[in-house]
UniProtKB/TrEMBL annotation:
Protein name: Putative sulfate exporter family transporter
Source taxonomy: Bacteria, Bacillati, Bacillota, Bacilli, Lactobacillales
Domain of life per record: Bacteria
Family according to the record: Belongs to the UPF0324 family.
Subcellular compartments: Cell membrane
Keywords: Cell membrane, Membrane, Transmembrane, Transmembrane helix
Species of origin: Vagococcus zengguangii
A Pfam family matched in the record: Cons_hypoth698
Length: 336
């Protein structure tokens, strides 16, 4: 009961903002309820000062509700839909991740950042935002201060790309669902940002962009294994000799990804869900998504972002430019 009470304030506020967003979108349909929900969250969150009593509820809404929404989406898609990304799409995701991570590390080195921090930035931008940073932190023995700064910059970069990516895609690829999905799902930092950005375009783009994004999340396992082999931290013995530290390696495939693919398999082979039920599942998933996006907005602390200084923001901006330009080249070559 106590845990529920600590979650309720932030969760209820996220719900209220999601309802408001879905009403306001009737006045400005071009913006979309997802983007309005995030903007409302940012405004309200910074007015109330990111109060601690809202933290657990907004965090729950941001992560758990979005995970449930993605798991439910698996029941509305078939394996044929997942397979649409094809070999070209898979190749694109892998190459885009490699270029992003390596590029982030090199840009950070040029700007004078330590390797631990650059690796966190690489994981966050290349894979899945805050969750990737949190997973990699203990593996490479990074400091909590570096973790916090990396999360801040990655979220700022993702928020920028969330708005810019659909505009660039329209300019570069027109109305191509697959190419737009690849640009958004293959680059944006968090799952929530992918969903919000894709919803600004269309529902088909949201579905395909989510698949591109989930493939990146699955590849987090590979990234963690590679990073665990890097010599990022040293311990100095009493004699002055540097000794490599030993760290515990632990990474699992998130439950919602497994649920998503299991749902796809079941609805493609065994279960034939009635159209009315599929519609209901999509509605519930959509409500959870908008609540989660409102919560993401509530957790954006503008004062914190400004406090980090121009250097960190320039780092994020250079990373965003790298991602978009690389994606344009790869998508043009690999995806039809």
């Amino acid at each position: 009961m106590k845990k529920t009470n600590t979650i309720l304030p932030g969760m209820v506020l996220s719900l209220v903002l999601s309802v408001m967003a879905q009403q306001l979108v009737k006045l400005v349909p071009t913006l979309g309820s997802a983007l309005i929900a995030i903007f409302l969250g940012i405004i309200v969150g910074n007015i109330v000062g990111n109060q601690a009593k809202l933290d657990k509820g907004t965090k729950f809404s941001e992560s758990k509700l979005l995970e449930v929404a993605i798991a439910l989406t698996g029941l509305t898609l078939s394996l044929q839909s997942v397979a649409k990304i094809g070999l070209g799409g898979i190749t694109y995701v892998v190459l885009q991740m490699i270029v992003t991570i390596v590029g982030v590390i090199l840009i950070g080195k040029w700007m004078g950042y330590q390797l631990d921090f650059r690796l966190l930035m690489g994981a966050g931008n290349g894979v899945c935002g805050s969750s990737a940073i949190a997973t990699v932190t203990p593996v490479i023995g990074a400091k909590e201060k570096d973790k916090g700064l990396a999360i801040t910059i990655v979220n700022l970069t993702g928020t920028l790309l969330m708005i810019v990516a659909p505009l660039l895609s329209l300019q570069w690829f027109g109305n191509s669902v697959m190419k737009t999905s690849a640009l958004i799902g293959g680059n944006l930092q968090s799952v929530g940002q992918v969903v919000a950005s894709a919803k600004m375009v269309s529902e088909p783009v949201t579905e395909m962009a989510t698949i591109f994004k989930l493939l990146r999340v699955v590849l987090l396992i590979v990234v963690v294994l590679v990073f665990s082999k890097l010599d990022t931290e040293k311990t100095v013995s009493s004699s002055g000799e540097k000794l490599a530290t030993t760290r515990k390696l632990s990474v699992k495939i998130p439950w919602f990804i497994m649920a998503f693919f299991i749902g796809c398999v079941l609805t493609s082979t065994i279960i034939d869900l009635p159209a009315t039920l599929v519609t209901s599942i999509k509605w519930v998933s959509n409500q959870f998504e908008i609540m989660a996006l409102a919560a993401i907005g509530l957790r954006v602390n503008i004062k914190h972002l400004v406090k980090e200084g121009p250097k960190a923001m320039v780092y994020g901006l250079l990373v965003a430019c790298l991602q978009m330009l690389t994606a344009y080249a790869l998508i043009s070559m690999l995806i039809s």
